[in-house]
Amino acid sequence: xxxxxxxxxxxxxxxxxxxxxxxxxxxxxxxxxxxxxxxxxxxxxxxxxxxxxxxxxxxxxxxxxxxxxxxxxxxxxxxxxxxxxxxxxxxxxxxxxxxxxxxxxxxxxxxxxxxxxxxxxxxxxxxxxxxxxxxxxxxxxxxxxxxxxxxxxxxxxxxxxxxxxxxxxxxxxxxxxxxxxxxxxxxxxxxxxxxxxxxxxxxxxxxxxxxxxxxxxxxxxxxxxxxxxxxxxxxxxxxxxxxxxxxxxxxxxxxxxxxxxxxxxxxxxxxxxxxxxxxxxxxxxxxxxxxxxxxxxxxxxxxxxxxxxxxxxxxxxxxxxxxxxxxxxxxxxxxxxxxxxxxxxxxxxxxxxxxxxxxxx
Length: 361
Ligand SMILES: Cc1cc2nc3c(=O)[nH]c(=O)nc-3n(C[C@H](O)[C@H](O)[C@H](O)COP(=O)(O)OP(=O)(O)OC[C@H]3O[C@@H](n4cnc5c(N)ncnc54)[C@H](O)[C@@H]3O)c2cc1C
Known about the structure:
CATH architecture of the largest domain: 3-Layer(bba) Sandwich
CATH class of the largest domain: Alpha Beta
Number of domains: 3
Number of strands: 23
Shape: globular
Structural class: alpha/beta
Strand order of the largest sheet: 6-13-7-8-9
CATH superfamily of the largest domain: FAD/NAD(P)-binding domain
Radius of gyration: 23 Å
Distance between the termini: 42 Å
Bound molecules: flavin-adenine dinucleotide
CATH topology of the largest domain: FAD/NAD(P)-binding domain
Largest sheet: 5 strands, parallel
């Protein structure tokens, strides 16, 4: 599944080596060595190795019986089995686990979601939005088994029997692991580059060797909209960082400064997040969750740091402009649905042109 037609690569002098695996980096010689022994010289090297599913060892569960979703092969394996499934157990209540849950429910398949923490999507979402999705999926028939992990898997005649840490047993046709990812950083670590939950890069996305950059899921970078180093797993992050490094290599010197944003489609609920909510300490609700369309504005003190929107694309677009401009929205305005955020965002962008916008300190 090429992202572009084959002709694009040739026309742009890009040699696409599908099936090739970079095995090691000889930094002294500035050469990447492929698994088949080919040596590729570089002036600058960009590491964009992505991440891999975390996986998990569950006593009693053979790897052949495990289903997951990351690659095309995983998707095909899942698709081939969907027609025969009456009950599915999803381990992990994050974005991918819940996107799968709503898809399976729409086909009438029974679902149990096992989640170790006390709320779904707890790593990424505020408690208010997380609670909305817990209810949303519960009303659609998903059973959440929160604060639980899978202890073991056994078999009765034709089904698997999952035993949870609270002692509950679930008879199921398939177990899908959706427990997050780990960065593919081994190539960098073996080459002696600094690695800490991803390849560590500076504000210009350079690794500890300035002739090597790292981007996307595999890179831990200092983002001015987050506190400290973050490793983001999103299409926006991968694309913006790729564009940034390309621009830097042809002369741009500004540090990387891209607002993180994310999305997830779960049944009829389209979730969009602008900014990074982890450091929020208070929240303002805009609209009514019961209506199925609302936003949660997340603040640190008086400063807006993130906005989560459900079926409110206009709030999301405005929030991105406002946060990118390093600006905040007064809480009274955030709460008032008749207040025009689009106009405020427009004025904010104009102000940004005349002042130097300050992202979060
Ligand atoms: C099921 C699923 C749903 C998702 N949904 C969303 C979504 O709705 N929105 C969103 O923003 N993000 C989503 N994501 C996340 C998003 O796909 C990733 O953040 C994004 O693909 C990261 O891009 P990347 O280029 O860093 O890594 P990847 O897209 O993972 O690409 C890395 C590539 O490097 C290759 N590679 C690794 N090591 C080597 C090596 N040594 N030699 C050669 N090749 C190597 C890998 O095979 C892979 O092809 C989803 C991910 C999954 C799995």
